[in-house]
Structure formats: C-alpha cells, structure tokens
Amino acid sequence: MSDVRRKVMVVGGYGEVGKSVCAALAASSPGEVIVAGRSLEKAEAFAARFGGALEPMRLDIEAVGTALPPSFDAVGTVVMCVERDTADFAHACLASGRNYIDVSASDAFLRQVQSLHDVARMHQSTAVLSVGVAPGLSNLLAKRCVEDLDEVDRIDIGLLLGMGDAHGEAATRWLINALLEQRRIAPGTKNDVMDYGFGWGRRTMYPVDFADQHVIRRTLQARAASTAVCFDPSWLFDALSALMNATPLAIAKRVYPGRAFVEWSRKMRVGSHRFSLRVEARGRRGGESVRVLGYLEGEREAERTGQVAAWVANRLRARQWDPGVYHLEQLTDLASLLGEVPSLSTRLEILDSRDPS
Ligand SMILES: NC(=O)c1ccc[n+]([C@@H]2O[C@H](COP(=O)([O-])OP(=O)(O)OC[C@H]3O[C@@H](n4cnc5c(N)ncnc54)[C@H](OP(=O)(O)O)[C@@H]3O)[C@@H](O)[C@H]2O)c1
Predict the structure, then answer these.
(1) What is the pLDDT confidence band of residue 181, given thresholds at 50, 70 and 90?
(2) Sequence spans of domains, the chain
(3) What's the CA-to-centroid distance between 172 and ligand 1, angstroms?
(4) Which among 163, 242, 295, 335 is placed 20 to 30 Å from 125, CA to CA?
(5) 7-131+302-340 and 134-301+341-354: same fold?
(6) Ligand 1: does its nearest atom lie under 6 Å from the Cβ of 103?
(7) How far is the CA of 54 from the centre of ligand 1 (A)?
C-alpha cells in the first residue's frame, strides 16, 4: 500500500458495527478515516462527534462499478460493514492494490471473496474475512480448542445473544432470514434444548447458517461442524419463535424480515447486553478421545465486532500480513487478539478432558 493511500474507508460507517470501527480508528488514526454511507447527513452527524477525526462521505456501494471512482484515491484499506451478494467490489479493491476487510456472516459470499486469493497476491493486497464476534472470535475460539488435537472429529459452536443489546438493522434482518431459511430447508426440526453451562442454564439452540461452521471445516480440518444460537432471555425468543413457526412460511418470509418487525424487535431491549461463545470440540490426542470446551463471554456484540475489524485494519496498514485472502484464524490466534484488545472479552475458560462418549 503506497503512502498516498493512507486512509481507511468504513462502508456502512454509521451503522451499528461501522460506528464502532470508526470510533476505534478515529482514536488510533485521526484524520485518516472516512465514514461512508448512502446518507451524507447521517455521515456528517456521526463524524461531528469526533471533532474532525472522521471525514464524512456519501457512497452507495451498489452504484460503484468494477472501476473505483476518484473518491477512493487516498484509500488503502476498506472495511465493509454492508451485507453484499457479489464480490465485485472486493475484486475492484484487491485488483487495485487496496486491502479489504469484511464482517459478513454469509459463507456463500465469503467463498466468492476467498476465490480472489491469486488476484490479491498478484496486486500485493490482502483481504481478511471472518472478522467480528461470529464469525471472528468464534473461529479463533475454535482454533484454540483444537490446537492440541491430532485429529478433529467435530466442532459445535454456540452463540448466545442478549436481546437487551444494540443489534443493527442489517444484522437483525440477516438473523431472522437465516432462522426462516433453516425452517425452509429442515421443516419440523426440533430445536435442541441443552444445558449451555457457565451460569446460563438450559437454552433452546436454533441452528443458523453462520459462516464460521463452514469456514472452520476448511481452515481447521474439522470433519464436521455446526453453529446454533440461543438468546437471553430464552423464554422471549422461544415465544417469538413459536409465533414465527405458527405463521405459514410464505407469509413469515414477508412479514418478519420486514422493516416494521425488525425495528420492533430491535427496540424491545429485554434481557442483557452480554454475548457468549461456547465451542465444543471433539477429537483425538495421542490415540485418546478428547473433548475440549471453550467459553468466551463479553458485552455489546456489535461494538466488539467493530473493534475486531479496527484491530485488523491497523494490522493491515502496518503491513503485518502477506498478500492474499485469509480468514482471521489463518492470520492470528485468540491470545494475540485478546492480549491487544482486552475489552473484547470479560471471561475466557478452556476445559480439556477425556471424552467419555
Ligand atoms: N461478524 C460479526 O460478528 C457480525 C456481528 C454483527 C453484524 N455483522 C454484520 O455486519 C453488517 C452490518 O450490520 P449492522 O448491524 O452494523 O447493520 P446496520 O446497523 O443496519 O448498518 C448498516 C449500514 O450500512 C449502510 N448501508 C446500507 N446499504 C448501503 C449501501 N448500498 N451503500 C453504502 N452504505 C450502505 C447503512 O446506512 P444507509 O442505509 O444510510 O446507507 C448503515 O449505516 C451485516 O452484514 C451484519 O451481518 C457481523
């Protein structure tokens, strides 16, 4: 990255995740951060809170073609906080020598960006995917759980989300769509009720197609992997889920991801603002069956997602990683990240035992 391209552009920069990326980067690199979104007014209002450390910009990412406009001239790193279907824009960044970070949880999209590895190497740029809490910290916790195993049979990821937390509109809609999609592909599935442990008690676990379960099969050579979410309070989401299940699927797919329901569920704010990740890995070490349970707890999931992305942006700007396209766990480990950004987690436990099953 040349020095004329010192700036970081945060696309979706005044959204729930984006504003945390901007706040962290405004502190570390004032004057070198662009907050971009479709509304210049919102970008300006957000930037005004930082006394000149952030530059507001109007940008509709859908309108950017395969060649980047002049507004990108000073940009060396892009942090994408808007859900995308195609990797065209990622391609434009990497092929022009710019670094690219994405917080997306959609594996189909991440695979498209992953396929740009050779493009990135050829143009000396780097993309980092699986950035955030889940995917992100979940991938790193899974890596920590399997690091001493000779063989990995399966990894099961659990994500607990506090319904009192501030979840963004895009993230809420993504999760509702993923839960409905699960219902479409596995109608009548009985969700697992399990003791989540670590003081949370019994929870209904809802399988969700988060990217982490697919990515760690590729990066950590796990034979099988799954991701399921649960909520705090449990009863509230169980009641909502019963309502969603009682609605015919065709209607549910129109009503629940719609603006009115998404806004209502975001404003409800019942329960804690904590999140937790629980990773259970099974495999073999020295011929013996082993079970490793990893637990990581923190507060304010969207804000922590942004802090992980800002940390990655600073690593890329310092040219600490090679050109290419990588998932977070291919570049770093949990100890390094938590060592440098301790606010990401308030509790971490790793329990390693013989597997009786
Ligand atoms: N990895 C993780 O752990 C993790 C955690 C949470 C969320 N996420 C992901 O992060 C992403 C953002 O979620 P969020 O909760 O921050 O959503 P959000 O609060 O709704 O923010 C989205 C932002 O994107 C902007 N935007 C939307 N369309 C745009 C376009 N065409 N061009 C430019 N800007 C556009 C929006 O502003 P305007 O509408 O005004 O343009 C808004 O500022 C989602 O993909 C979500 O799945 C990942």
Answers:
(1) confident
(2) 7-131+302-340, 134-301+341-354
(3) 10
(4) 335
(5) no
(6) yes
(7) 18
How far, in Å, from the CA of 202 to the mean position of ligand 1?
A: 32
Q: 249 Cβ partners below 8 Å, 6+ apart?
A: 180, 183, 184, 187
Instruction: Tell me if the bond preceding 248 is cis, omega within 30° of 0.
Output: no
The per-residue pLDDT for range 97-115, each reduced to its tens digit, is 999 999 999 999 999 999 9
Expressed in angstroms and rounded, the spacing between residue 39 Cα and the centre of ligand 1 is 13
Predicted local confidence at residue 148, as pLDDT: 93
Nearest CA to ligand 1 atom 41: 38
Averaged pLDDT, 23-30: 96
Tens digit of each residue's pLDDT (9 = 90 or more) over 294-346: 999 999 999 999 999 999 999 999 989 999 999 999 999 999 999 999 999 99
pLDDT at 244: 86
Indicate the CATH number for domain 7-131+302-340.
Answer: 3.40.50.720
Determine whether the shortest distance from the Cβ of 59 to ligand 1 is under 6 A.
yes
pTM of the model: 0.96
Sheet with 151-162, edge to edge strand ranges: 192-195, 202-207, 224-232, 151-162, 274-285, 288-299, 347-354
CB distance 85 to ligand 1 below 6 Å: no
Q: Residue 64 C-alpha to ligand 1 middle, in angstroms?
A: 17
Q: Which of 10, 16, 58 to mutate to test the pocket of ligand 1 (most atoms within 8 A of CB)?
A: 16
The mean pLDDT value for 66-90 works out to: 95
How far is the C-alpha of 129 from the C-alpha of 226, rounded, in Å?
Answer: 19
Burial bucket for residue 72 (CB in 10 Å: 0-12, 13-18, 19+):
buried
3-state secondary structure of 350: strand
**Confidence band for 2, pLDDT divided at 50, 70 and 90:** low
> 25: closest CA among 9, 49, 42?
9
Residue 305 Cβ < 6 Å to ligand 1: yes
Q: Determine the residue type at 76.
A: G
